[in-house]
Amino acid sequence: MRPVDQPAPFNLLRWFAWLSPLVIAMIALANAWLISRFLNEHLFQREASISRDFVQTILLADESVAYLAGSDDAALRGRFRESIAQLSKMPDVLRANVFAADGSILWSSNPDLVGKRFADNDELVEAMRGELVVHAGRIARDERQKREHEGLDPSVQFFVETYIPLVAPGGSGVLGVVEIYKAPLALSQAIREGQTQVGLAALASALALYLSLFWLIQRADRTIKLQHARLLDAETLAVIGELTAAVAHNIRNPLASIRSAAELSLDMPLDDCTEQARDIIREVDRISGRITELLRLSGQEVRGRERVDLAALLQRCVIECRSSFAERGMPLSFECRSAQAWITADPALLQQAFLSLLSNAAEAMRQGGTCQVIVEDATAKEIRVVVADSGCGITPESIGQVLRPFFTSKPQGLGLGLPFAKRIVERFGGRLSLSSVPGEGTEVQMFFPRA
Question: Does the N-terminal or the C-terminal CB of the chain have fewer CB atoms within 10 Å?
Answer without folding.
Answer: N
